[in-house]
Every structure is written in C-alpha cells, then in structure tokens.
Design a protein that fits this description.
The structure is a single chain. By secondary structure, this protein is mainly alpha-helical. It has helices at residues 2-5, 8-12, 26-32, 35-66, 74-86, 91-100, 118-129, 133-141, 146-157, 159-174, 178-183, 193-206, 218-247, 250-259. Helix 10 (159-174) crosses helix 14 (250-259). It starts with a helix and ends with a helix.
C-alpha cells in the first residue's frame, strides 16, 4: 500500500520501507483506466460467484444426504469421496482428462471441476449431523418432504457453516490464476484479475531495464525515467486492487465464525 501511493521515483529507488514517501495516485489512475483490468475484475467477480454458489450448494446438499444414517450406500459414498481427497492424480492426468472431455480452452474447464469440494462436503456433513434430529423428525411427521426439510429446516440452522464454506470457496476462487494459464490460454478476454496481476508483475519487472538514447534532452530523460518508475509502481497498485475486495468480505461473515 505504501509503495502504491508513494512517489514513483522513491519507490523505484527502494526508499519506501513502511510509511509512504511523497504522494502519487498516478499508478492507480493507470490501473483503473485500463479496460483490460476492469474486464479482468468483472471476470473474477463472475467466476467467484458461480463457483461459490455452485460449490456451497452441492456441498450442503451432499452433506445433508450423507448425514442421514439410514441412507443407502452411505458408507461406500463416504469412502468413495475420502480417497480422492487424500490421493490426487496430479496436474498431467488432470490436464489429459480435461482435454479428453473436450473442455480445453473453454470456460467450463475452470468452473466444472471445482464445483465439488470434498473437504467442504465433509465440513457440511459434520455440521448437519450435529443439528437436533428431533427437528427433522418433527418436520417429517408434519408431512414435510425431504427437499422441504432441507430448505426450511436445515438451511436456516446452517448459516454458520454456509458462511464459512462461502468464505473459503470465495477466497480460493478469487485467487485462482494458474488454472486459467493451463486450461484457457487463448481466452485472453476471460482471464481473471489474479492472472492480470501476474502479467502486471512480469511486465513491471521488465520495465526495470531502461534504455536511454544519447540524443535525448535532460527533460526527455527525466520524463522517460518517471514513466519507467510509474510502470514499475503499477504492480503495487494492482496488488492492492486485487486484495482489498476479498478482504472486505470477511467483516460480513465474522459473526457467523463466532457463532459456529
């Protein structure tokens, strides 16, 4: 934060340590005026919402079913889910699988495989299993169907775990960029904010090598140096822009952490 609002020359000279030195919003102006950054910001919000809503919904429904002791095949399903949670094939087999399914270079490649989180399912199942079973039995006696019990009894009592799962999933989805690099290299317009940050960091480091021509005037050299300094400072502004939105989510779910 200090580097992003300090004088660009001070930042490039390594003179900013903790408190800002000088003051400049030039890096933020360039970042916020970038159409690519704004599009990446929209993409990140879209992916985060889709993956969070889908993953939490699947986790709660699966956890609700697995919490029922009388469910047919409950033990088998538990083992079936726990094995891949501890043993993962790795990147190359996953890439081959994505390619064979025809998802490569499609947005579904970075959405569908991550709608199911076994860890979240286990958390949801454990939480729901600890709820008073008498409430479920009373609802069933009153004539409620299984979906009605889930919607009208389970979900209202599960706000704490829903908030926790939502925050965990949203944090993970917001910070993703490697999957987009691997599975959607050609979809530049659909890359998220974190991928934009990676490119900004690489580009900012590249600006550190500055070429000055002998026929330049002193004013031109000063302008070129300042442009290079601002370009190098951009990465700090992008880091702040990508970090603050997801940090603002936590205060809204903090009370559920305390309750749960």
């Amino acid at each position: 934060l200090s580097n992003s609002i300090s004088d660009p020359i001070m930042v490039q000279g390594g003179k900013v340590w903790f408190l800002p030195k000088g003051f400049s919003f030039e890096a933020y102006k360039r970042v916020l005026q970038s159409s690519s950054m704004l599009r990446a910001f929209f993409n990140s919000i879209l992916y985060t919402l889709i993956i969070t809503v889908g993953s939490v919904s699947i986790s709660m429904m699966t956890g609700f079913g697995m919490s029922k002791k009388g469910m047919l095949g409950r033990k088998f399903l538990t083992v079936y889910l726990l094995v891949p949670m501890f043993f993962h094939a790795g990147l190359i087999p996953t890439f081959i699988n994505i390619n064979k399914l025809g998802l490569y270079n499609k947005l579904w490649a970075v959405i569908l495989p991550y709608l199911c989180s076994i860890w979240n399912i286990v958390l949801a199942r454990t939480f729901i299993a600890r709820l008073p079973q008498a409430l479920f039995e009373a609802a069933t006696i009153d004539g409620a169907s299984v979906p009605q019990v889930f919607i009208h009894v389970t979900l209202p009592l599960s706000k704490a775990i829903i908030s926790v799962l939502s925050l965990y999933t949203a944090l993970w989805a917001w910070n993703q960029w490697l999957n987009f690099l691997i599975y959607t290299p050609s979809l530049q317009d659909w890359h998220p904010l974190q991928y934009f940050l990676v490119k900004a960091l690489l580009w900012g480091n590249a600006q550190n090598t500055l070429k000055l021509e002998s026929e330049m005037t002193v004013t031109e050299i000063a302008d070129r140096l300042r442009m290079a300094a601002v370009a190098s400072q951009l990465k700090f502004a992008v880091v702040v822009v990508t970090t603050v939105p997801i940090m603002l989510v936590y205060p809204f779910v903090q009370k559920y952490f305390v309750q749960g």
